[in-house]
Design brief:
Chain lengths: 349, 731
């Protein structure tokens, strides 16, 4: 079932947490609200849940206006950052809680709760206390507890932030798999850009209470609309360059001596802020190709899988990652940089 | 729910108006005599009958508004509109109800200006009874439903009802009585307004005299009270700090035993220490006897007066300061002390420049507690004071003694209240929110720094003898109940217990013939009624303040905080003034005693509940809400089970304080409803120490039993090992 926000504003006294946002979440898709802390993404999620009511605007779930409906009466469930498993109830009681409160008999609630636990692979854990489970298992209980109510929309508030890195990858795959298998409509909040790209059908990037950009993950990464987005979606080097249009589809970007032709339909001729992805910079010893950007290595770090270099160039200091670890460069080395067109983005003309 | 609730309430209100006696009954509802006179009898008639049959026309408007409420509940209206109409009608109803209730009293119009405005009137009415009270409750319920329908309180009827209940009861049973003191202080004996009288009353030499400074006679009671309270606050804070340091920062082996001390004042009626001091230092006490026997020094009476009262209060309230300061000392994060030591500060410098300043807000709190406990104390000054009068005893004699001067009592109570609130205000002003709550939850893994040797030795030399002496006093108290006449005849005997608690077997069954049984059972019964009410009201208020967002939340919190600072004597006097006249005429009943218990002790329940609730992550409540549980279900299934320790605490406190309190109820007891503490105090005043001590020991035993029973009934909170970590997970 779809979720739709129309010009929603949330104020706390004089502080504006969310200032007039509109978006739609299509049924059966996973949409992520992504942004730095304090950007209003959690407030937005809580307005979908009904834990906060909007100060202005309209919130619709499945085509119905629910703007003034409290959480209890909305057909929505939520998985909390802290999981919020009731510590005085067993795992089974936790999962059956929502069913019991919806008026189901104990027997039916227990049966459905067991089925819910089976769905997340925790069949035999019903009688345990939440505190006896590992972090990942607690996470699954929280998901099962939300799922058994068969909500129109399932909400996740930074669900993986309390897990270690390895478990985080496994859980996000499980969540994505479950969502696709059951065709759930999911709204997911995170501040981790990689996590967002891994699980989402669409991403809504928020900043300072507004929507910065929304779209499919690839678009956001390859065509960020603002300097903020270029910085926030993956790493990027801000640089000043010169733009000249070649034809309606392409522009030529001049960074120092280097010239890169990239696809672009909007940029105007003249000075521009350009974002350069560190993985799109190929670092070679001098002399490189003639149109390369030259510079000096300021710092070099070995990270096992790749090298990281800070390089002073005529277009400013650039940060580059280099998969070749067998012949590393040292600081002070003169280098030539070749910029791959897919990693050069004009963000502001 | 949205449609049914107002309907049910309106109907209930109308039924109460038609089928229950409007006014209070002489012999209570239980007898059932009123059923036959519901229409015909002038005393028993229901509200409707009073208005139609017995010429009390002034009841009619409020009852008609009730009908209007029913119509509004029935009418096909949009939700918000129905809400707005309900708010309007119920407010009109409340105003009409209040107007008639306050305007017409026992002798017609209740105020002079009403007589001059409307002329004499021959109608009159007494305090409201079941019918009137229920109609009042109905209006309040409809008001909260109306507000919830209009979207206030998150649209939740339950929350709206809870807020209205708490606010209305605090207004009626705390604010309203205290307002009465103010009014009374300005009135003469006939109820006329005389501002200059208030000034006269407060300007008396007996209150403000400073003769003691020049060595001629005693000082005024105000100075006495203030000086005693300052000494008690400073002394108990210093002693309490010594105890807390010994218990938490030294290698002292019997720390756990030391903590037992903190339980003692909770289960001891406050004057028991005074009694024990008399046994040791009194005219015929052990010390005087010993001195007379060995050195032939004639017995002195130094204990009766300021030294005795101060000593008794220090013994009684030091454990309270200890309790406060344990938390404070433990709350100082070892990380700061370790940081200080790595910055070249030695242990002494660390203690004086880091640890002590961090404890300062806590020390101020402990001082305030000692100060307020001292000015509110009634038992010790009356037992040990002699000629040394303080405000609380002076108020007592003004109301109960031969003076019977309510105006003077009110003026003195006002002074006492001003002292308490002044201290409270000063503390908030100085300490404010500058609490260095240093338990951060971010892995405090450091070790507390041991005390510097000088501080450790000082703390131990102060705390340990004092602790030993406290225990000795309790031992003497216990022994005092087991000898014939202390000071003259130390023959062991159970006579005092027999006199107090004998049970005889006769043909008609058991006869509770002991002198104490009557007051004992009354105490147990009323305390057992009050305790659950106290706990429920306190915890619900805490829940509202911590977890709900609504207009006036801060005011509600402040009101409960404030009632914490009002001394018991003031509350007692205020209740006498406010509730011996219509419309709320309950002086002399058990109800007023229960209400006094509840509203005296509720603030502690609120504090305990707030502290406990702030440790439970709010996302648990929210999870429950998104899982289809309404506010009452969340409260019942999630919040209360997690709050079990606080529930136990509030129940225990509600019960124990009801049993041990003296200052407030000493004004409210009657021959029919006598309480254990007031009974004992009277025995002490009459010099019957044996019985008083035996009875006190029995009370202490009763309270220990009650604590165990409550703990057993409520049970433990069922949590896994790591649960506390998860509850904080969100932060």
């Amino acid at each position: 079932m779809s979720v739709a926000f129309t010009n929603v504003v949330k104020r706390y006294g004089s502080v504006i947490a969310v200032s007039g946002i509109s978006f739609t979440v299509q049924a059966g898709t996973l949409v992520t609200l992504l942004g730095p802390s304090g950007c209003g993404k959690t407030t937005t999620l809580r307005m979908i849940a009904g834990l906060e009511l909007p100060s202005e605007g309209r919130v619709e779930i499945a085509g119905r206006d629910v703007s003034t409906l409290p959480a209890t009466q909305r057909d929505v469930s939520m998985v909390f950052q802290s999981y919020a498993l009731f510590p005085h109830m067993s795992v089974l009681e936790n999962v059956a809680y929502g069913l019991r409160r919806s008026g189901l008999a104990r027997k039916d609630a227990t049966r459905m709760a067991n089925a819910g636990l089976a769905q997340v692979g925790l069949e035999n854990y019903g009688q345990r206390q939440p505190s006896e489970l590992s972090g990942g298992q607690q996470q699954r209980v929280a998901v099962a507890r939300a799922l058994v109510l068969k909500p129109s929309v399932l909400l996740f508030d930074e669900p993986l932030s309390n897990l270690d890195a390895r478990l985080r990858r496994q859980m996000r795959e499980e969540i994505r798999e479950l969502q696709q298998r059951l065709g759930l409509t999911v709204v997911y909040v995170t501040h981790d850009q990689q996590e967002a790209m891994a699980v989402s059908d669409r991403i809504i990037v928020m900043n300072a209470g507004r929507i910065e950009q929304q779209g499919v993950p690839r678009d956001l990464y390859e065509r960020p609309a603002t300097p903020f987005l270029a910085r926030f979606m993956g790493e990027s080097n801000p640089a000043r360059g010169h733009v000249r249009r070649l034809d309606p589809q392409r522009v030529r970007v001049q960074l120092g001596h280097a010239q890169i032709d990239i696809e672009n339909t909007t940029a105007l001729d003249g000075e521009a802020t350009v974002a350069v992805r560190p993985e799109a910079i190929v670092v070679e010893r001098v002399p490189g190709p003639t149109d390369a950007l030259t510079g000096t290595v300021a710092r070099a770090s070995y990270l096992g899988t790749h090298m990281e270099y800070s390089i002073d160039t005529e277009a400013g200091a650039l940060f580059a990652t280099c998969p070749r670890v067998d012949r590393p460069l040292a600081s002070g080395d003169k280098v030539a940089l070749i910029l791959a067109p897919r990693g050069v983005i004009v963000v502001e003309s | 729910m949205n449609v049914r609730a107002p309907l049910v309430w309106s109907a209930a209100g109308l039924l109460a108006a038609a089928l229950l006696p409007w006014y209070a009954l002489e012999d209570g509802l239980a007898s059932g005599d009123w059923l036959s006179g519901l229409w015909s009898s002038k005393d028993y008639a229901s509200g409707v009958a009073q208005a139609i049959e017995h010429g009390r026309w002034w009841l009619a408007p409020a009852l008609l508004v009730l009908v209007a409420c029913l119509v509004v509940s029935f009418a096909p209206l949009a939700q918000r509109r129905r809400g707005a109409l309900l708010v309007a009608t119920s407010c009109i109803g409340l105003v009409l109800f209040g107007a008639q209730a306050f305007a017409i009293g026992l002798r017609g119009w209740s105020a002079g200006w009403l007589v001059s405005l409307f002329g004499e009137m021959d109608g009159q009415q007494i305090g409201i009874g079941a019918g009137g009270a229920l109609v009042l409750v109905t209006f309040l319920a409809l008001l909260s439903i109306g507000l919830a329908l209009r979207g206030a309180f998150g649209g939740d009827t339950f929350v709206a009802g809870a807020v209205t209940t708490v606010a209305a009861s605090i207004l009626l049973f705390t604010a309203w009585p205290i307002l009465h003191i103010l009014v009374q202080a300005f009135q003469n004996a006939d109820g006329a307004f005389r501002p200059q009288l208030m000034i006269e009353r407060l300007a008396e030499a007996k209150i403000w005299s400073l003769r003691c400074l020049i060595g001629r006679g005693g000082c005024g009671v105000a100075w006495n009270t203030l000086f005693l309270a300052l000494c008690c606050g400073a002394g108990s804070t210093a002693l309490g700090l010594a105890f807390a340091l010994v218990a938490t920062r030294t290698a002292f082996r019997f720390k756990r035993t030391l903590r037992v001390l903190t339980v003692l004042p909770i289960i001891t009626p406050p004057f028991v220490i005074g009694l024990a001091l008399i046994l040791v230092f009194g005219r015929s006490g052990l010390v005087n006897h010993f001195l007379e026997w060995t050195l032939a020094i004639p017995p002195t009476r130094w204990i009766y007066g300021f030294p005795g009262v101060l000593l008794a209060q220090l013994f009684a309230f030091t454990p309270v300061a200890f309790l406060v300061l344990i938390g404070v000392v433990e709350g100082v994060s070892p990380t700061f002390e370790e940081a200080s030591q790595t910055l070249r500060a030695d242990r002494w410098a660390t203690f004086t420049t880091v640890s002590l300043p961090l404890m300062l807000p806590g020390l101020a709190n402990a001082f305030l507690v000692g100060f307020i406990e001292s000015i509110a104390d009634f038992g010790n000054p009356i037992v040990l004071g002699g000629d040394f009068g303080v405000l609380s005893t002076e108020i007592y004699f003004a109301v109960v003694g031969a003076q019977l001067d309510y105006g003077r009592a009110a003026a003195l109570a006002l002074l006492l209240l001003a002292l308490a609130l002044g201290a409270f205000w000063l503390q908030r002003r100085l300490v404010g929110r500058r609490s260095y709550a240093t338990i951060s939850g971010k892995g405090d893994s450091g070790l507390p720094t041991p005390l510097p040797d000088a501080a450790r030795r000082a703390a131990q030399w102060i705390a340990l003898p004092w602790a030993a002496f406290t225990l000795l006093l309790y031992a003497f108290t216990f022994a005092g109940g087991l000898v014939k006449v202390w000071g003259r005849d130390y023959t062991p005997t159970l006579a005092h217990y027999v006199k107090a608690f004998s049970i005889e077997r006769s043909a008609e069954g058991l006869i509770w013939s002991g002198a104490a049984w009557n007051s004992f059972w009354t105490t147990v019964k009323l305390a057992a009624i009050a305790a659950p009410l106290t706990a429920a009201l306190g915890l619900v208020t805490a829940w509202l303040v911590v977890r709900q967002r609504f207009v006036g939340r801060a005011t509600l919190e402040f009101a409960t905080m404030l009632s914490f600072a009002v001394p018991g004597t003031v509350i007692g006097v205020a209740y006498v003034f406010a509730f011996n006249v219509p419309p709320f005429e309950i002086t002399g009943t058990a109800l007023i005693i229960v209400l006094c218990f509840v509203f005296r002790n509720m603030p502690v329940g609120v504090r305990a509940g707030m502290a406990a609730m702030s440790q439970i992550d709010g996302s648990l409540d929210e999870a429950s809400a998104t899982l289809r549980a309404g506010a009452p279900q969340t409260l019942f299934y999630v919040v209360m089970p997690l709050l079990r320790p606080a529930v136990v605490g509030a129940l225990v406190y509600g019960f124990v304080r009801a049993v041990t309190t003296v200052s407030a109820v000493v004004f409210l007891v009657t021959a029919e409803y006598d309480l254990a503490t007031t009974y004992i105090i009277l025995r002490v005043i009459n010099g019957d120490y044996g019985l008083a001590i035996a009875y006190s020991c029995a009370l202490i035993a009763l309270m220990l039993a009650a604590i165990l029973l409550i703990q057993f009934l409520v049970g433990d909170r069922r949590l896994g090992r790591r649960s506390m970590l998860q509850q904080r997970g969100r932060t």
